[in-house]
Amino acid sequence: MRIRRLSDWLPTTNKEVKLRGWDELDVILFSGDAYVDHPAFGPAVIGRILESYGLRVAIVPQPSVNDNLQDFTKLGTPKLFFAVTAGCMDSMVSNYTASKRRRDKDAYTPNGDKGFRPDYATSVYTKILKEKFPDVPVLIGGIEASLRRVTHYDYWSNKLMPSILESSGADMLVYGMGEQPLRELVELLQKGVPFSSLNTIKQTAVLLEDGERVPKNKNWDDVEITSHEICLRDKKAYASNFKIIEQESNKLYARRIFQAVGDKMLMINPPFPTMTEKEIDGSFDLPYTRMPHPKYNKRGAIPAYEMIKFSVNVHRGCFGGCSFCTISAHQGKFIASRSKESVLKEVDELTQMEDFKGYLSDIGGPSANMYQMKGKVQAICDKCVAPSCISPVICSNLDTSHKPLTELYQAVDEHPKIKKSFIGSGIRHDMLVPEFNKNADPKELDAYTEEVMTKHVSGRLKVAPEHTSDPVLKLMRKPSFSYFHKFKDRFDKINKKRKLNLQLIPYFISSHPACEPEDMANLAAETKDMGFQLEQVQDFTPTPMTVATVIYYSGYHPYTLKEVKTPKTKEEKLDQHKFFFWYKKENRKWIKDKLTKVGRTDLLKKLLPEDASWRKNKPGKAKNTFDDAVTFKEKSKSPRNKSRKFKKKRR
What we know:
Blueprint: H1 14-19, E1 27-31, E2 36-37, H2 42-52, E3 57-61, E4 81-85, H3 91-95, H4 121-132, E5 138-141, H5 142-147, E6 152-154, E7 159-161, H6 164-168, E8 172-174, H7 179-190, E9 204-208, E10 222-224, H8 228-233, H9 235-250, E11 256-261, E12 264-268, H10 277-284, E13 291-292, H11 303-308, E14 311-313, E15 315-316, H12 327-331, E16 336-337, H13 340-351, E17 359-360, E18 362-364, H14 378-382, H15 403-413, E19 420-421, H16 442-455, E20 460-466, H17 470-476, H18 482-498, E21 503-510, H19 517-529, E22 537-539, H20 547-554, H21 570-578, H22 585-597, H23 601-607, H24 612-616, H25 632-635
Parallel strand pairs: 1-3, 1-4, 4-5, 5-8, 10-11, 14-18, 17-19, 20-21, 21-22
Antiparallel strand pairs: 2-13, 6-7, 8-9, 9-12, 11-12, 15-16
Helix pairs in contact: 2-7, 9-20, 15-16, 16-18, 19-23
């Protein structure tokens, strides 16, 4: 085991800056998270990327905004710019539950302590910096800035808000994963180009002042969306914007987007192409210590770090395009996969950590089983505008072979110090059903499923069918629930053949747009028939940059502009949630009255049959996550965007 020195981490104080022999800093990064020097934590990745370009970088984690603000001035003035991020999650998702109650814990703070991250952290930090250092550029990024880059609905204030560039006063925004735009930005600064002239870098956004010349770029086409002021007055106009925003975010050759904001003009430059294997390997191979900064040694464990401490992320991006999910809006729909060599190198580093016991908690990504999947003919992908590659059906051009991932699992398990590797990320079960995934070899799909079930699961396999209603699933961009039945059949056969005794645990969402109370009653009845007493359930939470959130606020589907009904009131949402727990005694009378009133005695007979058998069956414990549910897929499970408690890997 390597003995770590304080100088192995990016400096956080003047003392640590001097330890490196520096008398000046190029970039000072402010983060809403505690500093964990790990590739799953966006602020650490950004700091290490900037360092790799030869810059002197320091990080100020969770600066205090409740005192004399000395945290913002203690490291002085950077030579190039300040960088600001709210952290791995949107600060409002970090701070509040789906019912807008303040959370009891912050997973990205030592001991889970709350109160170290302000609401709307990106804007709060930026405003302080602009007040104290008006002449120093501020660059914002991370999940909060990325998903609030254009007019967006903020659930917690129940308001339509302008681009975060306007509300924060920042000079530039980097959206999505930051490695590529930062590389170009730093190269130009090192050549002497002033920051104010860096407005043609891909994957960045700026606010042009009234009368400021629009920079020309002959390689880009332009599109102007409805102004922020019109969006405030016209919800349908706001909804119509999102179709353009989503499509351009997922194109390989996108248009530059313009939107008027008051007397200014928001300019969002097209994204970079998907990172190559060499580029993504380079990001993960940087010299991370993989540990929290020693300053937290006496403050307690950081929950988000403990969850992913012994896990490995093998790819980025998700081509699912789920209506409630922000992954493709931030990481892109095209998959960037690491090489097997890079993954195995990280696994070897993990095995050398002092408290490693031989178990990997996850080999995954935003969706576990999308590793190395891409278009068979690139020219077809180049022209594609579809937000999902697998909805309503799997694209015939998509290579969905699971063989590379199966082989990767097997290569990891061959390491002499690995006792067992688990798959903690969400698995797309629909892609393992030959009737849905017609592109793949059924034998490969069975081989992957059996590999996971026999070697990478500890008792329970969690999957996310999300709903049972076909109209709701169609709006969600999820396949019919019939494919979950087919997957369960395959799961049960392997379970029996291998004598595994594994449990299948499905996730479901209530109160999603287009979901009626009867849909939830159907969900409860159908899952009961399958033998489930639901545990992994959540209430839909509107978060910026998703189709479902646009519908929730505006009442219109952005692609059809047709009206869609959405449960909004606390009573409506709680009523839908109750159906998950049909087996609880306190819900029985309510369910009976509700279904009788709407004439659905057929469902009532399924859920609460009037015989002694119901009373004899004592229901098991269930986790009611109405308050704790989040829709960030960022539903994410960790800073890698894999748990429904933490959201993934968002920088």
